Amino acid sequence: MKKLVAAxxxxxxxxxxxFAAGDARKGKREWKxxxxxxxxDGSKAGVPALSxxxxxxxxxxxxxxxxxxxxxxxxxxxNAENIFEYLRGHALDSDQxxxxx
Length: 101
What we know:
Blueprint: H1 2-20, H2 24-36, H3 57-62, H4 64-73, H5 80-89
Helix pairs in contact: 2-5, 4-5
């Protein structure tokens, strides 16, 4: 009985962890619609032009808090977790770096 309970708990944690991450597909739309074209296209002084390939996965990991703060500060409707998943998933050193569009 204890083994069954343990197996159910492990399965529950695995499923919840899998769904805890953001949605990179939604993040791409949110990034392009609310962040890239508004702030990070290089048109504002002091705000760098950014794309997913501007940084490595480790660099995006280090900026996760800043991404969340920026989305919250600017009152965006975007989900910071989705944007982070998109940026990290298509970073310079990822399996699928986003090189265009």
